[in-house]
Write a structure and sequence with these properties.
Number of domains: 1
Distance between the termini: 45 Å
Helix content: over 70%
Strand content: under 5%
Order of helices and strands: HHHHHHHHH
Shape: globular
């Protein structure tokens, strides 16, 4: 019994330490992010941020779009198979539009970015740690947080919400194609139903989720890279850990946001 309590206590302390390290790193990165902003920051830091935005956002558009289109078709077909029994196929539009705007779009985007960019952050920073490049930056009076982490975090804050918008559009478009081929619903009438079903709070909730998800992915990926120690094999472990932990935290955050939205919507 004592061994079980000791093990649970150790794991609890480890998790609390990890959350505390994430908060400390986030606050330090947030303060250093001013140097990565355009006009007021360092010119070279902003160029690095733009390159990160291309890698996180532009390069991920095909994958995110394809995932959203496939999910939109699946979501519409599954909803139609149940709603057809009640003669309520019209509500498939509401299901797809609200489901993607509020829930599926930001969540699918976060999972895709976590697998693509979160792992890349951990691998890049972990390699720099193993090859002592981060120590070289400190010797040259360059803060690694400002030089490495801040551009990645700023790029994630900009790119992830933009990818979520693209995911929403592709998913809703896929639902429209399904409705056109199933009940011959015209695109104009479909868009009218979409705009009538989506509320401003749905869009705001999706954007807030995207910003939080981008923060989680960037901070977890960078923290796992900064915690690398030992040889090159530890870089692989940190990359895997970054994807697993960021995906887990994204789902937990999504559940909390959904519960908050549900409780506030009832009032």
């Amino acid at each position: 019994m004592a061994n079980i309590l000791e093990s649970v206590g150790e794991r609890t302390i480890e998790h609390l330490d990890y959350v505390g390290s994430l908060n400390i790193q986030w606050w330090a990165t947030f303060r250093a992010m001013a140097q990565s902003l355009p006009f007021i920051g360092n010119h070279y830091r902003w160029k690095t941020t733009v390159r990160q935005m291309l890698e996180i956002g532009v390069d991920a558009i095909p994958m995110v779009s394809l995932m959203a289109i496939c999910t939109g078709f699946i979501f519409a077909m599954q909803g139609a198979s149940e709603l057809r029994r009640f003669g309520a196929l019209r509500y498939v539009v509401d299901l797809v539009a609200v489901g993607f705007t509020r829930e599926l779009g930001p969540l699918m985007t976060a999972i895709a970015v976590s697998g693509r960019s979160g792992s890349a952050f951990a691998a890049e920073i972990g390699t720099m740690k193993v090859t002592e490049e981060l120590d070289s930056l400190r010797v040259m009076a360059l803060e690694p947080l400002e030089f490495v982490l801040a551009p990645k975090y700023l790029a994630a804050l900009i790119s992830v919400p933009c990818l979520s918008v693209i995911s929403n559009l592709c998913g809703i478009l896929a639902g429209g194609l399904f409705m056109f081929f199933s009940i011959h619903l015209t695109p104009g009438l479909y868009l009218r139903y979409v705009f009538n079903s989506i509320e401003l709070r749905d869009v705001i909730m999706g954007m807030v989720k995207s910003i939080v998800f981008g923060t989680i992915i960037a901070q977890v990926g960078c923290l796992e890279g900064m915690r690398v120690h030992g040889g090159p094999d530890s870089v692989g472990r940190s990359t895997t850990s970054a994807v697993v932990k960021s995906t887990f935290l994204v789902i937990i955050a999504d559940a909390l946001f959904t519960a908050l939205f549900y409780l506030t919507a009832k009032r």
